[in-house]
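Good morning C.,

I know you're traveling, so I'll keep this short. The sequence:
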Amino acid sequence: MTRLSTLLALLALILGATPSLAAAMTGDKAVARMVAFGGSCAGCELSGRKLAGARFMGADFSGAALVGSDLRGALFHGSVFTGADLSRADLSESQMMGASFARARLTDADLRRAELNGATFIAANLSGSDLRDTEGGGASFASANLSDARLDGAELNAVDLSRVNARGARFDDSELTAANLQGGRFDGTSFRDAELNHANLQGGTFAGADFRGASLRRANIAGVDLSKTQGLTQAQLNQACGNATTRAPSGLAVQSCGGRRMSPPTPPAPPVLTFRPSPR
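The tokens, ready to paste straight into the viewer:
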């Protein structure tokens, strides 16, 4: 009996299902809605399966194949999909809080309106994926491939985008407050009307990036080369925190932080004696 057959048989017992239902689930592409998966099924072959509404609770599906699977509205709470292949899978409106998709393949996957809060996508391949209107506060995409991905309208506050490849991606109207973009490649990326307040852009590349209408209040652009970006205005740069090595587009200047010079704090005054030493 395969691992998948064993897992589904156990599920049938837990849920009070009949053996015939378990057999149907293993033999048919259609898997019953609201099926719960637990335990380990590393390396399972589930490509093309209809798993809409399935629940993966603390499950280990490392290296599993779910290419083109229907996972709309599925729950992945605390589950591990490290190295799994979910290329072209439909993950729209799914919930991935606390799940790990490190090094997973999600190329051209549909993740619209998914909840990714606290999820891990470290070194994952999400090139060409659709993440519009997702909620991903605190999620980590460190070293991930987001090239040509759509993230319009996404809420990605405090998200880790360090060292990502996001060339040609779109973050229009997205929320990236306190996001870490350090060392990322954002050449040709669109940040139109995005909120980058308090974000860290240090070490990133932004040639051809579009910042029209973006908010950069207190964003850290120290040492960043913005000379070849599009849509930046002096008003935007006046809100950001640059330094002498920040390169602005032609005709624009960079402020230290909101136009104010940063000076060292004044040392405290020495204490005043309030008593006189008595003579010997």
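Safe travels,
E.
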